[in-house]
Hints:
Elements: E1 2-6, E2 11-15, H1 29-39, H2 46-53, H3 57-81, H4 96-99, E3 108-113, E4 116-121, H5 126-142
Antiparallel strand pairs: 1-2, 3-4
Amino acid sequence: MFDINDDAKSSYRRVEVLTGPGRRRQWSAEEKARAVAETLVPGARVSDVARRWQICPQQVHAWRRAMRSDVVATADNTSACSAPNFVPIITEAVPATAAASPRSVAAVVEIQLADAVVRVVSGIDGTLLTAVLRAVRASALRA
Length: 143
């Protein structure tokens, strides 16, 4: 450090000369992801997380924005080559003579869950249907 005497003011001022590497730190992708993950916890505040990591809140917001754009970009790339995320509805054509018959046809819904197909006829008790579907799902989870 240098002490400088300014004759006009006749007082000493201190000047610090900083040498060595700069203050700029390099953060790995894992460290950035951990900091962003801390902000996504319910009740967490970005300013508190930034203070713990000794960075400014704007940096954490920039990392969050970058991670969001990376997720959207990867989702766009994978959706173009993967199968659609919906289940198609397949209906069977009913002959015109069968549709014109006066007797009422009971509606049947087929639910495919795990390796089982559950056929539900109109008028079934909702609690019974719920119990059956839960049992099928539980047996699929055990397998």
